Queue: 3 jobs
Job 1
Amino acid sequence: MSKSCNIPLNTPSKIERAGGSMTTRIKGILCALAIFLSFATSAAPRDSVAVTWTHPGPLLPDSSNFVTASVLVASPGEAIYSQLGHAALRMECPVHNLDYCFSFEEEAGMGGILKFFVGKTDAHMMAVPTAQFLSNFKKEGRQVKQYTLNLTLHEEQELWRLLDNDYVDENLRHFNFLQNNCSSVSLMAIENVVVDETIDFNGWPEPFKLINGAIMKHQTREWPWLQFLCLTFLGTEGDLFWEQEQRTGPELLPLVLKKASIVAADGSSRPMVTGEKEILPLVNRFEASRLTPTVAFGALLLVVVLFTLAQLKWKLCRAGRVLDIMLMVLVTAMGLFLIYTSFVSGLFGKHWNWYLIPFNPLPLIIWLIWRKRKGFYKVYLLYTVVLVLFILATPLSQQLDLPHQLITATLAVRCLFNYYDSKRNAATAVIMTKTKNKNIKNKK
């Protein structure tokens, strides 16, 4: 755990008023140590980065540079979880040689990934020495910029204390995808300590005028697979507005900070940040794979269409049955997963997900129960109509996009074929039955 910088203040802080027992401090130290070891062993390399103080000069008579608070913003990484970049709070105290970054981090490893999708990922503010924190970004060649906050000495001290005592309360411990992220939690931490003043954001930047789905598309525009993943789970939340702080990502955070000002009780104001500095240069500019979801699922649709045409000509009954089973399993698995993440896990918050219309377990259930009934082939036509209408509804919701609708179109092609093929087989069976009965009658 980092050591908070303490100087006498006329007004005691909230934490000073609350006090604290030795047991609480020991638990806090052990918790921070466990978090630190987890971060160090899973994310940070062994080497460190030489960093300089934000204010290297001597202590001013009014002690206003005793503590310095800054926001660090890192450029996107190659891994899907880092493609939006990263943000953290840096706290410095040159007098006591303290320099820590407080980063909102979730669990790493396979267990963490599984917990993420079931909405049970715990996230905490981790205190990591700045040199060590930056080493991983240097290794990946990612740019890191620093934005020095224009807080009062009391606010800087209070911010450090809140972070040091694990600022994130119980309501924020579950990582709720884009709502509780590194940027939003950092911004809300700053807002939390500006108690005798107010932050005027002077009109949020242009992207914040968009609804959730549109602003998500904006922030993930360079990462198609990440965008596909986000839109898969967004549901009706895509057509709503969250709190602006919750919609703030690493790319948009500097725009918010530069535009904002802090207004004092007497009406005077000052910029929220006083400077911008590049801590690490941009060495690697990561690019998304050329195999985008649109390309991948467009190719799938093309293959299925060509196969279906071949099946019309050469039958290929067994291969067609295998293809339909694979698609049925895929639709059922996706449907069950979406039901859980939408209504149980709270990954985005419990809500309706539009993709449950084409992807759900109902087709499999109906097929298992009624497939042997006469006229069952009409179900294929009904489902085809539903899928086509769903594709036509694309402009009605920000969640609906081309890659997902290419999958929907693939299902529609197979459903339409199965309707035609089953109807043809049923008609052939009727003709054969009539012919058989006629032959029997003639023999008599």
Job 2
Amino acid sequence: MKKMLVLIISLFLLTACADADTVATVGKTKITKGEFEFYLSSIKSQLSGTELKTDEDWQTQEIEGEKAIDVAKQRALEIAVNNAEYCELAKAQGIQLDSSEKNRIEEMKKQVIKSYGGEKAYKEFLKQNNITDSFIQMMCESTVYYEKIADRIKSENPVTEEEKEQYFEKEKAALGAEYKKAKHILFLTKDMTSGAEFSEEETAKVKELAEDIYRQIEDGADFDALMREYSEDPGLETNPGGYVFTAGQMVSEFEQAVDSVSAGEITLCKSDYGYHIIKRLSIEYGDIADNIDELVLKERVQKEIKQWEKDYNLAVTTNENLIKTIK
């Protein structure tokens, strides 16, 4: 009797410990604390900036009126739940992966392993972060399952140009914050072939020239004309109208400089490449029309998923108490 009681208590404790480590449950899929922290770390990297460097910054700074860490947690939880849902619902609907899709998933996983320095370093990373190889496998699978779900929804009801334009007008402010556009005049302070830095004397001359051109623009000189004359950006020929980008796609100094001005304004900054005279531009519909197509489709997918949760009895629960303890 005592042995049975000990066994029951042991099983209870094991179950309690497992549940205590579960941030959310999506159907049969459990999202562990380690997995959630993996997502959170990724989101924090995307959102990090000059004011979000330390753990204290994340606890005290705000993003659009909300504590930065809470915004990051919300986004991390949303992605974690969505990835699990894509896999659960695709399987519930009998969506099969063909051999090319399975091969693609394996290639994605190989790239992940490579990014961590190979098999040994990858396994050590998993161990240190309390995540498993099967979790990484699920993440890779979720990408393909999402695409299959989205393709089916899109084929049944294609996204129209009118829908995209309406979405742009409705979400213009948010899109303008997420997508940034700027053109720049680049004055190099390094040899782009060898990577060698210019001497202090050469760099000083480049700085002097950049500051002179900057003053000319401030006094009313034509930005585009000076850009065509002076810019050493190798991408100018293919991007004469400027670059459209999101957080993390440009060097941090460039992004921070763009963030420091409003559309139509100019600023000067220094990066590892050299000096940049930057002019921020307004985001227009044509700049992100392809992205909007995906955003409209994603909105549809999320709507369908909410209905499928009911149709397939897919329960989604979250452990808010545990989430609050995670930093």
Job 3
Amino acid sequence: MIVALGATFYLLVRFVKHRDLLDFDFKTKYGLLASGIAFTLMCLLMGFGIKLGRNYAMIPSHLAMMIFGSLIFGLAFFTLVTTFVLYYYKTTLVANKRKWIRRIMFIAIPFLIIFLVMDLDAFSYYASFPLISGIAFTSEGVKFVTGSETEGFTIKWYGIIILGGAFVAYFIADHKLYQEYKRHGLIDTMFIVAFLFGIFGARFWYCIVLNPGTPFFDFQSGGMGIMGGVIFGATAGIIFMLVFRRYINIRHAIDLIVPGILIAQAIGRWGNFFNHEVYGSLELAINEVWWLPNFIKQQMAVSFTDPTMMYLPLFIIEGVINVGGYFLIVYAVGKLCNKHLSYGDLGALYVSWYGLVRVILEPMRNGGDYFLTSWIVAWVMFGGGLLVIVGLHLYDYLRWGKRTFNLSLNNFTNPKNPYYVKK
């Protein structure tokens, strides 16, 4: 799998850097085909490796689920990665092929999700729960840990998944800025700064606000507050853009960058799934929740020794609402209502949306000794975002007049435009 992915990225980087290549050459076309076949087969072999290594006596239906799930997940994952790079970074590709690459990229996403769930579900009937949440490197060797356990130096899936979500948000923001400024990499350094401050803020929020007295530098014990990560990370990113990217309109950049954080948060919530946390106080009978995949029901079980009841999987609910909020803000509001917007509205709408989500879900959460603090902050975020929107509109109206509300009239190349920024 590593060799196949390495070959894939080598071919893609080579093809993207050759601006004279407007169509696929022989080496790129058949090299990617060979890498795709190899990666897909390796996913299948990895599935059989788990089956044989764990000595799972799988019934035929579950074996078929594993085979088809592994194969099509591998193919969909490879297709998504390849088409993503080609569409967003090989902008000189012939128009007709770019159109089809974009279609294939979006088609690959539901296939990836559906068949990954199928693959995981096939193994869930034989695996032991709770699932492994990380790897610990101790003086006695390598150990697997579950839940919030730590021992020695521990790498948790939670951190890896958060990092993956952050990279997805970065690529979304990078592409949005490329569409406006025709340059990639405008936020590379800002991304690193905002991410580091976001991690610091999440830890600060947990140790100072939610659980006062918790040792800040005791990282192995875990504990992060996502609200602190959002506040510190976004503030650091805005300050960086104001100081080092003054040629970019900061209000417009906020609209392009900030809503993508909802996607990162939705992905990051799956780290809570492996840690067996962020679930609701409501308990459900497992046999009645037939529509949920089995591995989710087993991991959310109230008792792993007697898995008949499960907690409400609040992390899934929040993730789905966040993804829906992203498309609502960026496309329903940003595209359909742009004649009535001011720059900065979409960024402020993200703050209000996420505040509203936490206002609704926080009372449903189990084990929240700090519920009241988080709930109050959520109300502040919801109201604060709405006040910012009102303030932006009032400022633009008083200073520039009614015409600036129509974003479609704002041409960055026109010096008479109040939002004009020299590129």
